[in-house]
Amino acid sequence: MKYLAEYRDPATAKKLVAAIASITTKPWNIMEVCGGQTHSIIKYGIDQLLPNAINLIHGPGCPVCVTPLEYIDKALAIAQLPEVIFCSFGDMLRVPGSHHDLLGLKAQGADIRIVYSPLESLTIAQQHPDKQVVFFGVGFETTAPATALLAYQAKQLALKNFSLLVCHVRVPPVMEALLNSPNNQVQGFLGAGHVCSIMGYHEYLPLAAHFKMPIVITGFEPVDILQGIYLCIKQLEEGRFEVENEYRRVVKEQGNLPAQQLMQSVFNIVDRPWRGLDNIAAAV
Amino acid sequence: MCLAVPGRIISLSNDIDPLARKGQIDFSGITKEISLAYVPEAAINDYVIVHAGFAISVLDEDEAHESLQAFQALDEFRNNE
Questions:
Q1: Which of A2, A86, A112, A144 has the lowest CB atom count within 10 Å?
Q2: Where does residue A193 rank: exposed (0-12), middle (13-18), buried (19+ CB within 10 A)?
Q3: pTM for the full predicted model
Q4: By CA distance, what is A142's nearest residue in B?
């Protein structure tokens, strides 16, 4: 596929691996922020190709796995109601609650539907006026605009049988929380490219300056990730701490303004617990 | 979760509300209807980055070509070493 195959090219990846090795003189700890990047790193064996001195710290967790138990339990309680059609992304179905998971409930007969696009849940609500349709809105800033549009369109359509269980989380507050930890080992970040395609990266400028932390906005293909690591190591070796954009073909500094505007009109930012990390201020 | 893939716009809807705008997107032979609510500037034949049924960004082809050229330059740099 165009604009995909080029960034999975083994020859380019080899060049970048060699370039990284040639500039690395001491051990460095880099965190890739997004679970999608972690997935690529493991899938393509990128961690195995890097010099031993480079340690990738995977974190701080994807929106699926950081969703607090209480929200999963809420989702399970709602999905069990006989009048409810519960719509969710597929990756939430296996996440365990206190006693069971959505997939188990579905197997027992609950009407739980996996949607690719959140907008499908609106169509389901229109098709089933006798049912209450609930969409489970989970995700970083990449996914939150979809839920925002859902709220906007449901209001426009004056749907009375549609609700949202919202559990979105923001990325910059958790990065700041990690950097404030006295035990922090992270020396550079690969910023989450698709989050930044929505939000831009101006929020990272004060983080990079205050914590003297290189932040490289990075894509998801193996060549993107290697390029992100190369730029991050280069900054560390040269003693720089800047925000750089590796993923320029997708991310602009200001981000996606129409998406930001609709999210501002639909969502309020509140503090929220982050599974594994305690309460994060202004997380969602 | 944050997975997104590039696809090419092959047709656009005529919705008046920009937030209702949709398009048929070609992903190397697989076609799917995608919301273009957040890419009002997108036109036919543009590549968009699609996540969960939404185009989240128009792919900047000039930047893509520049980055690929930069990888090429990296090779030349290494060959000169």
A1: A2
A2: buried
A3: 0.93
A4: B2
How much of chain A, in percent, has pLDDT values that exceed 70?
A: 98
Query: Measured between alpha carbons, how far is A219 from A246 in angstroms, rounded to an integer?
Result: 7
How far is Cα A226 from Cα A19, in angstroms, rounded to an integer? 10
Residue-wise pLDDT tens digits, A202-216: 999 999 999 999 999
Mean pLDDT of B19-28: 96
pLDDT digits (tens, 9 = 90+) for A117-131: 999 999 999 999 999
**A192 interaction partners in chain B (CB closer than 8 Å):** 2
Please judge whether A119 and B35 are an interchain contact, meaning their C-beta atoms are less than 8 angstroms apart: yes
Mean pLDDT within A263-275: 89
Q: Do A15 and B8 touch (CB under 8 A)?
A: no
Chain Cα centroid distance, residue A258: 19
Going by pLDDT thresholds of 50, 70 and 90, the confidence category of residue A228 is: very high
Phi, psi of B56 (to 5 degrees): -100, -15
The whole-angstrom distance between B14's CA and the closest CA on chain A is 17
DSSP A252: -
What is the maximal distance between C-alpha atoms in chain A? 66
Annotation: CATH topology of A64-169+257-280:
Rossmann fold (3.40.50)
Domain A5-63+171-245: state its class. Answer: alpha beta
Question: Quick one: tokens of A141?
Answer: 């800033």
* Cα gap A55→A31, rounded to integer Å: 8
Gap between the Cα atoms of A164 and B72, Å rounded: 48
Q: Where are the domains of chain A?
A: 5-63+171-245, 64-169+257-280
Strand residues in A45-187 grouped as ranges (E): 54-58, 84-88, 112-114, 132-139, 162-168
Token duo for residue A98: 């206190």
Name all domains of chain B by residue range, CATH numbers in brackets.
Answer: 5-80 (2.30.30.140)
Chain B positions touching A15 (Cβ under 8 A) are 71, 74-75, 78
Interface of A with B in 234-263 (CB under 8 A): 248-252, 256, 258-259, 262
